[in-house]
Amino acid sequence: MEKKKTVVVALGHRALGSTLPEQKTATREAAKAIADLIEMNCNVVVTHGNTPQIAMIHMAMSEFAKNHPEFTNCPMSVCSAMSQGYIGYDLQNSIRAELLTRGIDKPVATVLTQVLVDAYDEAFYNPTKVIGRVLTREEADEEEKKGNFVTPSENGYRRIVASPQPRDVIETKTIKALLRDEQVVICCGGGGIPVLEQGIDLRGAPAIIEKDYSSSLLAMELDADVFMILTSVDAVALNFRKDNEKILTRISVRQARSYCEENHFEAGSMLPKFESAINFVDMGYNKKAIITSIPRVRAAFMGKAGTTIVNSL
Q: pTM for the whole thing?
């Protein structure tokens, strides 16, 4: 029997929606893509973003603390943990239901995942991720007194947090154990809960990790065969939506790196996906990364759709 491939699938924003009802619907579509891979003899690990969800949680907890002074504000790391729990809950149930519909009885587990970051990462001195509700000038001053960063926005100010590079996925051994049992694993939600090492303790950091970077790191730590990034486009294009648009199908990691260096991709959009894919493929000759949309997963895995990055052509 052919050896099962291990595939790490990073779900983008479209796979989760922005509200609770949208998330319920979106996760059902994502579950179909995961089930397709399982039907193609793959062990699957699912990671996902959490930008709208963590913003909602942070805003709700901030408003609660504002109106109830006896309660403290909720740290960003705790908001991240909350988002992992409730996104995992919907994904877990959607995947389980889709598998049972196809006659597949396979356990699905969500792992609350922490990701180690470096306290001296330059990102902590140059935060970029906007989070939370609009603040008044007085509230912004209070945040700055606490050592937090704020930035002007429409109608006021918003808090901004760092986006440091992931260094290690703390729960990798747990994820490996579940994979050996051929369970579907949901983990590294929102890039993982960012933590700092303090002796034997792990302390939550006020940050949000780019989920594609964490997903790529996890794929490397698991020695996965394939790293799939699911986004809003069927395949990556140069000169997107222009007269000279060029769809990328199968490219080498050298070509992928040159496209990044030539500034073809935006920093907050396709660039981290390409950089993450490059990092993974660089790990070994037989590794490949695929960027595609949820409906095209089966075809892309078979090499008939999407953008595939390999070590050499």
A: 0.91
